[in-house]
Amino acid sequence: MVVNEKIAIEHGLKKEEFEKICNLLKRNPNITELAIFSAMWNEHCSYKSSKVHLKTLNSKSKKVIQGPGENAGVVDIGDDDAIVFKIESHNHPSFIEPYQGAATGVGGIMRDIFTMGARPIANLNSLHFGSPQHKKTKNLLRGVVQGIGGYSNCIGVPTIAGQTCFDESYNGNILVNAMTIGLVNKNKIFYSKAVGINKPVIYVGSKTGRDGIHGASMASAIFDEKIEEKKPTVQVGDPFTEKLLLEACLELMVGKSIIAIQDMGAAGLTSSSVEMASKGKLGIELNLNKVPCREENMSPYEIMLSESQERMLIILENGKEKEAKKIFDKWNLDFEIIGKTNDSKKIEIYFNNEKTVDIPIDFLSESAPQYDRKWKKTKLPQKIKFKKDEFKSLKINDCLKKILSSPNICEKRWIWEQYDHTIMGDTIQKPGGDAGVVRVHGSKKAIAASVDSSANYCYSHPLTGGKQVVCESWRNLISVGSEPIAITNCLNFGNPEKEKNMGEFVECLEGINDASKYLEFPIVSGNVSFYNETKDKGIKPTPTIGGIGLIKEYEKMITMDIKKINNHVIVLGKTDGHLDQSIFAKEILGEKKGPPPEVNLFNEKNIGQTLLKLHKNNFIESAHDVSLGGIIVAISKMCIKGNKGIKIGKLKNLMNKFEFFFGEDQARYIIEVKEENLDKVQDILNQNSVHYDKLGIIMKNYIEIENEPKLSIDELKNYNNNWIKNYMVN
Amino acid sequence: MKSSVIIFPGSNCDRDMDVALKKFGFKNQMVWHNEPEIPKSDLIVLPGGFSYGDYLRCGSIAGKSKIINSLIDFVKSGRLVLGICNGFQILTETGLLPGVLQRNKNLEFICKNVFIKINNNSNSFFNNIKKNVLKLHIAHNEGNYFCSNDELKTIEDNNQIAITYCNSEGLSNEENNPNGAIKNIAGVLNKEKNVLGMMPHPERMIDKYLSGDDGSIFFENILGNFK
Amino acid sequence: MKIKAIVTLKEGVLDPQGKAIQQTLSSMSFSEVKKVRQGKYFDIEVNIEDEKKAKAKVEEMCEKLLANLVIEDYKIL
After folding, report:
1. pLDDT, tens digit, 9 for 90 and up, residues A331-351
2. Phi, psi (5° rounding) for residue B160?
3. Residue B111 appears among annotated catalytic residues
4. B contact test, residue of A142, A153, A310 with most B CBs within 10 A
5. Cα separation of A461 and A466, whole Å?
6. Confidence at A229, pLDDT banded by 50, 70, 90
7. Under an 8 A CB cutoff, do A97 and C13 touch?
8. Phi–psi pair at A137, nearest 5 degrees
9. C70 to chain A nearest CA, in Å?
10. Nearest to A155 among B12, B15, B209 (CB)
11. Residue C72 main-chain phi, psi, to 5 deg
12. Phi, psi of A65 (to 5 degrees)
C-alpha cells in the first residue's frame, strides 16, 4: 500500500516532513516504511527539537567512560568497577494506565542498564502528581506506586531513594521518571554499535504482540479529548520474564559471543535495528517471518512498531548461535535468528519472501529533521516586598507544623515501604534521607544516589532553576559524605512548538550546563520528554536530575539523624532569608510570585568541598542540606530522625525570624559537631572562607526557640508522618 | 556443614542467602530447580523472591518443580529445610508445612523492620538463642498466614508456631501485626520440627551497617548445632 | 438475585500469568494444552428481582470498577 500525505499526518508527521521523505526516497513510501519513518523521526527517537541544545552539554570528566548516545552513561569508580546509570520518563503511559505505565517504565530503564552488561543494583524514581485535591490524583498515586513496586520488587532490585511532588500543573500530565544504577566490570561493558558483516541478528525475550503500537508517537503527542481512543496502546509488563532475561543476558555476557546488544524500547524492533546499524555504519537485513509472534496474522507494520516489553536484539559472533541458544532455552525465553548485518547501509525487510522495506539507514538517522525552534527568554521576576508586620500574627511553631505536614515536605514512608529497599543486602541508607546508599558488593566502596527537581524555581526563572537542581543533587550527595561523580537528566517540558515552553527548555538546560561545568559534575545520560500538555495546559518545566556519588569507605558514611546530646549544630553557608518561591511563601502566605533564590556556584563548590574536608577529619556527626522549608525544616527532620531536640541560640543577625528560619537561600548545610572538635571545625571553615552560623546545642525531646513555646519532637514526627497515610486512607 | 540453596526461575534472594550462609561458615552450593537430585547437604534453603512471577498463587508453580520430590525425601530423612518468604510459600503449597499465605491485609507490599518473638526453641533453628525477641526485616505482598481453626488447634497442640510478630518488648497484638496473619504468626514448623518456613529475611540483617544484625544470631545458632 | 461476571484480559493483551501457567501445565505433561488465559470471577448478589435490570447493574459495575477497560474485558454470565 502506497501512502499519501493524509496517512503520513495521521502518523504524526508534518506535511514538510512527508515531502522530505518522498524526496529522499525519490518515491512514496509504503505503509511499513512510513511507520518506520514516523517512529524514527518523532520527537522521542530523533530528539529533533532538542538535539541542537543537547549537543552543548558538558559530558566529560576523567571518570566518564561513556557519555550520552548509548543505552546509558558509564563512569569509573576505581578498581575496574564502573557504574552504569540513566533516568528515563514514562509520563504519558502512566497517566493512561498508572500501574502498567509505571511498571513498564521501570522495566525499560532496567533493560537499558543490563543491556550494557551491568547488574542493576539500585532503582530510584521521581514522581510528580497533580494537586492532592484533584479527583484523579489519589488513584494515579496508588497505581504508580504499586506499579513501580510490582516491577522492581519482583526483579529484586532495591528502590533506595526518590521524591514525590504535588502541583496542580500536573493535573492532566503526571511525571513518572525512573532511574536505575548498575555495576559492571569496566573491561566488560557492552555497546549497541554493530561491527562486522554477515553477523547473525538475534531476537531474544518475550514474543511480539500488538502492544503499544505507536507508543513512541504517543509519547510525543499532546493529550487531547480523544485520549480514550489511544488507550489500547498501553503495554503490559511481565517482570518475571524480565528477571529471566536479565539473568540470561548476564550469563551470555560472561563469554565473548556478543558483538552488540540493544533493548527494544520505544518503537521496538524499528529503533533497535536502525540504531545498531547506524552506529556501526552498516546495513541490516531482517526476515519478519522469523520474529516470534504472540498473535496470529501480524503484519510487518505491526511487528516493526510493536512495543511489547522484555525483548532484546543481539548481534552475535558467527558460530556462537548454539551456545547462546542453550542459555536462552535454559531460561525459557524465545531465541530466533531474524537477520544479518551487511554493508548495504540500508535497512531491508522481508516478509513472505517479499522485500517490504528498503530504506538507507542515513535517511532515518542523519537526515531526520532537526529544528532550532524559536524560544523566548524568561525575565527574572521582581522580588516580592513581603509585609513583615503581617508576620507578627504568625507563630513559628504553627507554620512549622503546617509545613512539615504539607504534601511536598512530609515523610513519604507510605510510598517507600511498598518498595523493597533492602534486597541484595547492601542498602546502607534507606529512602527518606538525603540520598540512598548501596554498597558495591564485596568491597569497601558505596554508591550514593539522589533524584531531584525544583519545578517552582524553574517555572519562575528557568536559568536559575536549572542551576539550582544540579546544586541540590550535588548537596544531597555531599551530605552523605560522598564525592559527587556525574548526573543523568530527565527533561520534562511542555510543547516545544510554543516559544515560552521552548524557552524554558533552553534556559533550564543552560542553567544545568553551567552548574555541571562549574561543579565538574558531567551529564552522562538522559532523556527528553516534551509535549507534557493537556488541552493547551502545560506542566511547569521540570528537569529531573539523578546524581551519583562515590563513598570510598562505606563505614564512614554520614547520615542525617542527630546523634548525641550536647553536640553543637552549625549552619554552613550564608542565610539571607530569601522567601520568594519558598514553601513558606506558598503554604503560609499563599504567595506564588517572585524570583527563586540566587545560585552562587563558587559558594556551592567551596562549601561542599569544605564539608568533605571536615568529614575526612572525622569532624561530622550528622549532616543535612538546607533546602525546601529552610533551616527550621532541615533541623526538624534531623531531630525527628535522631529522636532528639535542640536548643536554638539567640539569633546573631538582626534578620526577621521568619526569614531566618524559612528562607531558602542556597549552598547551605546543617552539621552536627562534637564540643571537642568545635574549634578545629571553625578553623577549617575560616581557612576556607566558609560563612557559618552556630545554630544551637542538642538536647532531649524538644525544639526550643527563644520566646516560643517548646515543640515536642514526637508531635513534629506525627505532623511529618501522617499526611500521606491519612490522604490515602480517606 | 553443607547447605544448598535452590534457585527457581524468579527467585531473587538466592544470592543474599548464599552470601549469608557463607559468611557464617556453611559450605553452600546453588542448585537449579530442575536438577533431579539435591547434592549432599545438611540444610536446604528455599530462598525468597517471586518464583514464576507469583503467578497463579505464590509458590504454586515452583511447588510443581522436578526437585520437589527429592526435597520431600530429604525432609523425611530428618535433615533441615528452611523456607524464607517465597520459600515459605512454596513449602505451604507443597504441603510440607500447614496453612497458606494470603495477601497482606492492607493489600500493599510491605518492606520494613519488625520484631518477632521466638515461640518455640526446642528445635535446631532457635534452640540456643538467648534473646527472646529479634529484630528482623520483612518484604512481601503475601505474608498473611492463615489456616482453619482445626489446623490452628493442631499446630498449637504440636507446638509448631515458631515465631510471632510482636513489639520490642515481645508483646504480640493486632497493633504489631504487619500483615493480618492469624495469631500474628510469622513462621511455622512441621510436626517433626525439621522444616521451618518464615516470612522475615534473616539474610538481610547480618551486619550492623544494614537494618540490623539479629539475622546473624539466627544463622550462628543453626551452624552451632552442627559443631 | 445472584449475577456472575468474568473479567479477563483483552484478546491481544499480554497475559504473563496465563503464559506461566500454560508452560507449567505443559511441563507437567498435559501435552494437550494449547493456550491458557486467566481472569477473575465475581459472584455478586444484588437486591434486584428483574434479571435484566440486575445484569445491567452488574455491567455498570464492571465498566466502572471490576474491569480495567484499558486492558480487560468482562462478560456477564
Report:
1. 999 999 999 999 999 999 999
2. -95, -10
3. no
4. A153
5. 9
6. very low
7. no
8. -55, -45
9. 6
10. B12
11. -120, 155
12. -95, -40
φ/ψ region of A212 (left if φ > 0, alpha if ψ in -120 to 50, else beta) reads left
pLDDT classification of A228: cutoffs 50, 70, 90 = very low
Q: Of A220-234, A410-424, A557-571, which gets the smallest average pLDDT? A: A220-234
Tell me what the mean pLDDT of segment A399-426 comes to. Answer: 95
**pLDDT for the residue numbered B35:** 87
How close A238 gets to chain C, by Cα (Å)? Answer: 6
Residue B112's closest chain A neighbor by CA?
Answer: A417
Amino acid at residue number A727: Y
Best B109, B140, B214 residue to mutate vs chain A (most A CBs within 10 Å)? B109
- Residues A385 and A362: their CA atoms lie apart, in Å, by 57
**Nearest by CB: B209 against A154, A156, A428:** A428
Q: Do B16 and A427 touch (CB under 8 A)?
A: no
- Number of B/C CB contacts below 8 angstroms equals 20
Distance in Å, alpha carbon of C51 to nearest chain B alpha carbon: 33
- pLDDT bin (cut points 50, 70, 90) of residue B66 is confident
Q: Compute CA distances B20 → A170, A640, B25, C32, whole Å.
A: 45, 32, 9, 43
A697 contacts A566 by C-beta, under 8 angstroms: yes
Q: Is A90 a catalytic residue?
A: yes
The one-letter amino acid code at A458 reads C
* Domains assigned to chain B: 2-226 (3.40.50.880)
> Residue B197: in which H helix or E strand, if any?
strand B195-198
pLDDT exceeds 90 at position A103: yes
The residue with cell 517504565 is: A105
Closest chain B CA to residue C24: B61
Cβ of residue B26 closer than 8 Å to a chain A Cβ: no
At A585-640, the pLDDT tens digits run 999 999 999 999 999 999 999 999 999 999 999 999 999 999 999 999 999 999 99
A241/C16 Cβ within 8 A: yes
- The fold for domain C2-76 equals Mth169; Chain: A , (3.30.1280)
Give the residue from A449, A457, A436, A419 showing the smallest Cα distance to A167.
A457
Residue A653: band (very low, low, confident or very high) from pLDDT cuts 50, 70, 90? low
Question: Residue A230: what pLDDT?
Answer: 43
Count Cβ atoms within 10 A of the Cβ of residue C11 and give its class: 0-12 exposed, 13-18 middle, 19 or more buried: exposed
Chain A neighbours (≥3 Cβ pairs under 8 A) are: B, C
Contacts of residue B109 in chain A, CB cutoff 8 Å? 146, 149-150, 153, 418-420
In the predicted model, what is the mean pLDDT of residues A322-333?
93
**Residue A287: its pLDDT value, please?**
96
pLDDT tens string C1-57: 999 999 988 887 788 888 888 888 888 888 899 889 899 999 999 999 999 999 999
Give residue for cell 464492571. C62
Q: How far apart are CA A425 and CA B188, in angstroms?
A: 24
Partners of A241 on chain B (C-beta within 8 Å) are: 53
Interface of B with A in 179-208 (CB under 8 A): 201, 203-204, 206
For residue B47, pLDDT over 60 is answered with yes
- What is the residue whose three cell numbers read 539507514? A361
Instruction: State the maximum Cα–Cα separation within chain C, in Å, rounded to a whole number.
Output: 47
Report the predicted TM-score, pTM, of the whole model to 2 decimal places.
Answer: 0.93
Domain limits, chain C: 2-76
d(CA A309, CA A319): 28
Angle at B143 (CA atoms; ends B139, B146), nearest 5 degrees: 170
Task: Kindly tell me if the per-residue pLDDT of A223 is higher than 70.
Answer: no
Give the angle A345-A347-A352 at the CA atoms, nearest 5°: 140
Give the pLDDT score at A231: 42
A242 near C CB under 8 A:
no
